Amino acid sequence: MTNIFLVGFMGCGKSTIGKMLAQELGLQLVDMDAVIEEQQQMAISQIFATKGENAFREIEKDTLHILGKKEKLLIATGGGAPCFFDNMEWMNQYGITIYLKMSAKALAHRLMSLSEKARLSRPLLAGKTESELAEYIEKTLKIREPFYGKSRIVILTDDINPQTTVSRIMTALNMMQAAKKV
Hints:
The chain is α/β, with parallel strands linked by helices. It has nine helices and five strands.
């Protein structure tokens, strides 16, 4: 099986869905942000603070290219990864991209339910009220949607549980396989 790349806004369920889907497909789950933190020996928020977003995006691109050339991986990307350089096109070339699509309202609600510590660990969330967060997500999704929308599979996840999401992804993957045989 080719690699699978999960894309979507932070909080959309890439880690949760990724664990379940990797098990279902017999793939190894790799959280790209966790790999970056291990390589850089600092949290993503620290990388943003000390090196800046541009440096982080370069590190992210390099990590994506290294991971994407390995086999049998399910890679949960960072929320912004598809939107920089040619990352989305590259992922489509080297694997199957799956966009876990959620509305801004659902994302804001989910992210606000995180602990304060968890929100602080996400540099783009720190210090925002729920209304500020919803506004930020709405604005950011408008920018990111053209990139996310290039995914081969798009699954709407607002009102469904993780198991149903995985089931819908499996159906879409099976349909892709069947189409290749025709």
